[in-house]
């Protein structure tokens, strides 16, 4: 069974094609293709509330390329989901309709709660009976989920994201709202472990030079990496640290968001599982196709 997931974010757009096989009682997910294209839709939307004509044309071309790959790999099923930038854009639905009509690719614009639900599907193997705060920082929004005894007890999406934070234009009321949500649902006596998802925390984790098989990073180490990054100019982060251009400017604002949430929860460490929306989409696709496949 071949499955494809597309995550249309505010800072970049990702396609993953996966082959699912069954062997000796186990299920194997093998990545056949992964593409990340740095189309920053959020920069348009968070400033002028719509996707520019230039980026609209690039987006449609990209969807054509993705549809060709989906067809060439003879994918059995796919899901394409758009998040913060597309849902806040005044012409987002119009562009989605254009892609459906001209290319035959169906895009779902999902809200923050649905986005969090999909990401959560990829997290369950990391969650036990202890309390956890899941922090997912995207370009346009941050999703927070709180777990206790393997149950999600609270969830909320905030208009705080790495692209949105580039110009320091996030109102103080939004920051206070996020801190209040955390303090309302997490007791100071709880020893909370955070779970961080998103491209920026994955890169911060990589820069920390973790030991083999380690998936934890401390709040002190995140603070240290942030301070280290701040000693470099944008050009140096691209050329000396070899960061992607669309990562080099947002990684510092993103680190501030993770640190703010961790501090509000009095959390000392974070699990970085390197999963995201596309992994949750794969989970949904597999579940809805496994019975169909077994009946054929």
From TrEMBL:
Pfam families: Ppx-GppA. This is Phosphatase. Residues 29-282 form the Ppx/GppA phosphatase N-terminal domain. The lineage of its organism: Bacteria, Pseudomonadati, Bacteroidota, Cytophagia, Cytophagales. Signal peptide: none annotated. It comes from Belliella filtrata.
